[in-house]
Amino acid sequence: MTTDHFSEIATLVSIANQIPDLTLVSVGMTFVLIARGIDLSVGSVLALSSAIFGVLIVDRELPLIVAGATAIIAAATCGLINGLISIKARIPSFIVTLGMLEVARGLTKLVTKSETKYIGTIIESISDPIPYLLISPAFVFALFTVFAGQFLLSRMAFGRYFIAIGTNENAVRLSGINVAPYQIATFVLCGILCGIAGVIHAAKLSTADPNAAVGIELSAIAACVIGGTSLMGGRGNVLSTFLGVLIIATLQTGLAQLGASDPIKQVITGSVIIAAVLTDAIKQRWNKSKA
Predict the structure, then answer these.
(1) What pLDDT score does 106 carry?
(2) Where are the domains of the chain?
(3) Terminal-to-terminal C-alpha distance of the chain
C-alpha cells in the first residue's frame, strides 16, 4: 500500500518466478512435519544437489538429464539417511538433520572446491518465463507439485498414514501398520524435492554456489506453520503451505521495495514465525478446552 509499483503485474510475475525452489522445499517439509518430524538439512541438501548438477555439466560435460537425475538421487540419499538414522535408531530428527546440515554443506564445498561454478545459459530455460505466459516452467512444475502433494495427503492411503502417524503413532502401530517405512518415506520425499529444487536454483542463477540456500529451512518451516501445519504433527495442508510461501515471498518483496535492510527482513520474518506458532498453540489449547 505504501509503494507505487508493488501491485503491478511485473512484480507479481517476478514473485511467482522466484518461489519454485522454496515451494518444493516447503512441500517436502510439510510431509515431514505432519509425520511429527523435522528436517533442518533441506538448505544444505539443496545446495549439494545444485553443486553436483553444476559440476557434472561443467566439469564432466554430462547431459542435462543425467546430471539432474544424479543430483536428485544424491539428495534422496541424504533424505534416506536422515530417515533411517532418525527412525531406526530412534534419535530425534532435529539432531540427525542438524548433523546432515553440516555434512551436506561440507560435501557441497568439497564438490565445488569452495568455488562458484558458472554453468551458463544452457539451463536458463528452466527458470526463464515462457513467452506470452510470463511464468517459468519451474513455477508450473512447482504448482503441479503442490496439487500432487495435496492429492497425496487427502486422497491416497499412503498420505493419510502420514497424518495418522503424526496424530497418534502408537494407535497406528497397534492397528497392525508398520509405521517406520512411512516415516522414512517422508524424509526421502523431502530429499527428492530438495534435489529438484537444487536443479531449479542452479537454473535460476546459472551457477552452482556452495553457499546457496543458507537459511531456506527457516523460510520453509515458516511457510508450513503460517499455512497451518502443526509442529506437533498430525495436521497440515500442502495448499495452505503454498499460501504460506506466497505470504513470505510477498512480505520479502514488499520490504525490499520499501528499502528495508536484510536484518530488518530477518526480524520481521522471525516475528511472523513466532506469531504463527503462538497462534497455533492457542488454537490447539482452545480446541482441547472445548472438547
Answers:
(1) 97
(2) 20-213
(3) 41
